[in-house]
């Protein structure tokens, strides 16, 4: 037994050691996905933080310093001589250079911008109009002079201060109350919801027919659908608008209205919806369809009771694509709705804000985040079906 044991030990010692293989491709894939997530998440987080910051802090520091105090330099005017009072033979002017702003603390001050840090808080500063002024941390000041003040113009005092971080919803209040942004938000919902449901319903029926029904010209129709995928929207916009105007004139419909933009988005969204749904439905088990047909079920019954429930992942992914495209659309909405205030969608209203508040970043960031709230809700609600529906039918 001892000899056998020695032989086994020698074999184990002679055998080469096996080390776990490092899957480089797997690590590269994970790091790439992490990088993509960061590239999309970091700007969105920065947009949200900026939209909640004080306008003065936005102008001074980046969003990544939102939790740290910001240091600023500003100036304020001291009162005129008419505000002085006499106490024990000394003329005094009191007040607060910060006014109602309690979010700042004075660090230093000076008579000019060049000497803004020349006098620490609480130390006397000689004024050109006479006397000396002392300013506290909270902005309270006392300007004292042994002789009566005679100045008419209000002199400036320059100061350096720290501004504590402050979150506010005033930016969103400005956006939602300015230029009927709230009405435009509802207009975008009025356009996006029907223009998402209608093409998906039509595409579902067409996809089932192209996948499971046998009729003459089916391959030609499928080839035409694939060909329409490469047609640019800008190239077909004018023909679609001309056709709609002719139909609207025949039936007395409104020239520019929601019905026209619904039909336009339906026409532009159908090729991709039909293509994706057809690929998904064609990959469903054939045995289920044949057993249902043998039991006497019609095509409509098979479609409504079996195919639609099984195709929900594909329907959800197409709904995400269609809704996001319509929500972010501006060109089709301008062509079919016009620029009237009662029909302007949110993207058109944000352009007006860009022209009105071109230098006020707090308003623009709040408006931009308002525009992406609904797409984020839609995407995160349906994300678990997104990849399944998108890759449906790509692998047999």
Structural commentary:
The chain has 396 residues and is an alpha+beta fold. It has 2 domains: 70-164, Elongation Factor Tu (Ef-tu), domain 3; 172-390, Orthogonal Bundle (MetI-like fold). The chain is built from 14 helices and 9 strands. It has helices at residues 2-14, 24-51, 55-60, 170-177, 181-212, 218-228, 233-251, 258-282, 286-294, 299-310, 312-327, 331-337, 346-356, 361-390, and strands at 70-77, 85-87, 90-96, 104-110, 119-120, 125-126, 132-135, 140-145, 156-163. The protein has a 5-stranded antiparallel β-sheet, with no helix packed on it. A 4-stranded antiparallel β-sheet has the order 1-9-4-5, with no helix packed on it. A hairpin with an 8-residue loop joins strand 4 (104-110) and strand 5 (119-120). Helix 2 packs antiparallel against helix 14 (361-390), helix 4 (170-177) packs across helix 14 (361-390) and helix 8 (258-282) packs across helix 12 (331-337). The longest helix has 32 residues, at 181-212. The two termini are 57 Å apart.
Which secondary structure elements does this structure contain, and how are they paired or packed?
Layout: H1 2-14, H2 24-51, H3 55-60, E1 70-77, E2 85-87, E3 90-96, E4 104-110, E5 119-120, E6 125-126, E7 132-135, E8 140-145, E9 156-163, H4 170-177, H5 181-212, H6 218-228, H7 233-251, H8 258-282, H9 286-294, H10 299-310, H11 312-327, H12 331-337, H13 346-356, H14 361-390
Antiparallel strand pairs: 1-9, 2-3, 3-8, 4-5, 4-9, 6-7, 7-8
């Amino acid at each position: 037994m001892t000899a056998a044991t020695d032989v086994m030990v020698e074999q184990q010692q002679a055998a080469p050691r096996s080390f776990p293989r490092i899957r480089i491709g797997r690590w590269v894939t994970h790091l790439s996905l992490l990088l993509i997530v960061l590239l999309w998440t970091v700007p969105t987080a920065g947009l949200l933080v900026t939209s909640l910051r004080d306008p003065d802090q936005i102008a001074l520091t980046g969003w990544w310093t939102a939790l740290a105090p910001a240091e600023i330099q500003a100036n304020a005017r001291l009162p005129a001589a008419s505000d002085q009072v006499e106490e024990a033979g000394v003329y005094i002017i009191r007040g607060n250079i910060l006014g109602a702003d309690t979010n700042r603390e004075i660090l230093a001050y000076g008579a000019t911008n060049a000497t803004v840090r020349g006098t620490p808080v609480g130390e006397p500063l000689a004024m050109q109009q006479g006397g000396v002024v002392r300013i506290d941390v909270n902005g309270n000041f006392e300007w004292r002079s042994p002789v009566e003040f005679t100045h008419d113009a209000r002199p400036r005092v320059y100061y350096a201060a720290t501004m504590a971080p402050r979150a506010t919803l005033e930016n969103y209040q400005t956006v939602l109350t300015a230029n009927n942004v709230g009405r435009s938000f509802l207009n975008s919902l009025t356009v996006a919801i029907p223009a998402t449901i209608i093409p998906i319903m039509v595409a579902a029926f067409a996809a089932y027919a192209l996948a499971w029904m046998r009729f003459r010209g089916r391959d030609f129709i499928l080839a035409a659908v694939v060909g329409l995928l490469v047609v640019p929207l800008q190239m077909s916009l004018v023909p679609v608008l001309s056709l709609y105007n002719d139909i609207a004139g025949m039936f007395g419909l409104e020239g520019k209205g929601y019905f026209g933009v619904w039909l336009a988005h339906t026409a532009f969204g159908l090729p991709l919806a039909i293509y994706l749904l057809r690929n998904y439905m064609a990959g469903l088990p054939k045995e289920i369809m044949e057993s249902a047909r043998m039991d006497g079920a019609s095509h409509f019954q098979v479609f409504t009771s079996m195919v639609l429930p099984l195709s929900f992942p594909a329907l959800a992914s197409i709904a995400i694509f269609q809704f996001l495209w319509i929500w972010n659309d501006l060109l089709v909405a301008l062509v079919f709705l016009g620029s009237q205030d009662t029909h302007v969608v949110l993207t058109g209203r944000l352009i007006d804000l860009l022209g009105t508040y071109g230098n006020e970043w707090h308003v623009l960031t709040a408006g931009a985040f308002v525009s992406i709230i609904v797409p984020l809700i839609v995407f995160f609600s349906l994300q678990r079906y997104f990849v399944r529906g998108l890759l449906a039918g790509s692998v047999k």
